[in-house]
Amino acid sequence: MAKINYLKVNEHYWDSNSELYHDAHPEHFDADRHPSWGIWHLPESDLKIFTDDLPAGSRIIDLGCGIGHDTTGFAHAGYEAYGVELSSGQLSRALGEGAAGFVQAAAERLPFRSGVFDAAFCDHGAFDFSPPQRLLQEAHRVLRPGGILGLCTYSPLLQMCFDNQSGTVGERLANPYGDARMKYGGDVVVFHSTYAQWIDMFRDCGFSIERLVEPLAPAGGATYFKEALDRNWAEKWPAEVVWKVRKA
């Protein structure tokens, strides 16, 4: 496992699957839904991870931006928004309207000077597919003092309830808590952390924690990701977590 070049594996995965993925998710091209958080596209205007703190014109970087649907969403909301994406296949479909710019790069090696961003955003982007401590160190570097990092990833509870054989989430605990922080299923490398691991990493990398949101699926709402997660499960238990932390 340690010998896997996760960046190369994941770049190939997204270059090969970008078109299929976005054809399955036309909501990413609906500007009215963005910026938003998680697989239920909960509006930033409701969660207010950034909008209560950042004045118009603030500079935001989207870590693992995909086609840039949230990057452009922040741009339309009045921010100077940049997107960083590992995959050229993703960037070849980038929306781009209003965004300050897109860069192909690994989020753990950002081609920006230190202290130039007011906020960093990641919604199931780089933090799902790279070692989180490396990303936190790099986010800390490019943020100004007092800068905000908001990130959304899958919850530890979902990871414990994920059945590796069926590829679905059930109502029984199927995995040990905190088991396998790095997982490789033969096509893509993903990373998971427990709450305690996240807290330790935030502290070690120089961030203070301000909020932890555990969103449930809105009852009666739309389902955008039908591959593995049952909506009834996610209406009862949080499938995701959204962290808001600040550079100390």
Automatic annotation (TrEMBL):
InterPro entries: Methyltransf_11 (IPR013216), SAM-dependent_MTases_sf (IPR029063). GO terms for biological process: methylation. The keyword Transferase applies. It holds the Pfam family Methyltransf_11. The keyword Nucleotide-binding does not apply. One of its GO terms (molecular function) is methyltransferase activity. Residues 62-149 form the Methyltransferase type domain. It comes from the Bacteria. Keywords: Methyltransferase, Transferase. This is Class I SAM-dependent methyltransferase. It comes from Streptomyces violaceus.
